Amino acid sequence: MELTEGQTAVVTGAASGIGLALARELVGSGLQVVLADVEEGPLRAAVAELGAGGAAVLGVPTDVSDGAQVDALARQVVDAFGPVHLLCNNAGVGGGGLIAELSEADWAWVLGVNLWGVIHGLRSFLPGMLAHGQPAHVVNTASVLGLITAPFTGPYAASKFAVEAITETLFHELAMTGSPVGVSVLCPGWVRTRIAESDRNRPAGMAPRSGPLRDGLAEVVANGMPPELVARAVLEAVRERRFYVLTHPEITANVEARLRGIVSGANPELHVAGLFDMPGAPGS
User: Fold this and answer.
1) How far is CA 231 from the centre of its chain?
2) What would you report as the CA-atom Rg of the chain, rounded to the nearest whole angstrom?
3) Catalytic pick from 81, 109, 116, 156?
4) Over the stretch 147-193, which tens digit does the pLDDT of each residue have?
5) What is the pTM for the complete model shown?
6) 244 an active-site residue?
């Protein structure tokens, strides 16, 4: 899909990390960009930065786990800029720990943002993108942990595996109907984002999680791939109508090993070679 001046893009989780990098790249390509994020202060700062040169930018505070708020976001986008040509369902949070020790609230929060945020985005925006008949594209952010598993990542991995499956299903549906709408799934590895600080947005009443796992994650994330490189890879995939966006090819061997185990019927093995030796951490 050609990205041209005057098209409209929507990016969730756009106040930091990969989302902000995507918004910057899209503004630089001349698109009208709507930034959605649950953090109102950073969102205002991002809009001020990107709009300083006269770009058409709109910030809409949005909790993507709330379907009504995503519906309202869609209405504001159409009212302000018209048809949507690029939707980046990018908002995400990190969360994990021993499955036996996780509360219902832990699961609900991570699945609400990472999985239901994508579902709400598709439900609210995709019908309009199909109806306007112009070339358009959807990018859903999953993770390398939507392709392989690792201990202590239950809620996060569950959400990202589901996002990958939904996106792959959508690919088949769009292809079967000959739709001009394309779709990609982003499966980032180690990226320099604020994923290790996700507790800052935990709902009121949920105690922050701490400990060696979180501390170690913060250390490696700080040395991760710059989000700008991820954003450029995403836009390249959009232009090429390419489905998979894999930021770290060195992880591919782990995916292949996992699939061989499934085909052979073997019990699951831990396929994370190189994953924790790399600088940074899986994030969105």
Assistant:
1) 11
2) 18
3) 156
4) 999 999 999 999 999 999 999 999 999 999 999 999 999 999 887 76
5) 0.91
6) no
φ/ψ of 11, rounded to 5, equals -125, 125
Q: What does the pLDDT look like over 221-273, one tens digit per residue?
A: 666 778 999 999 999 999 999 999 999 888 889 999 999 999 999 999 998 87
**C-alpha to C-alpha distance for 127 and 269, rounded to whole angstroms:** 41
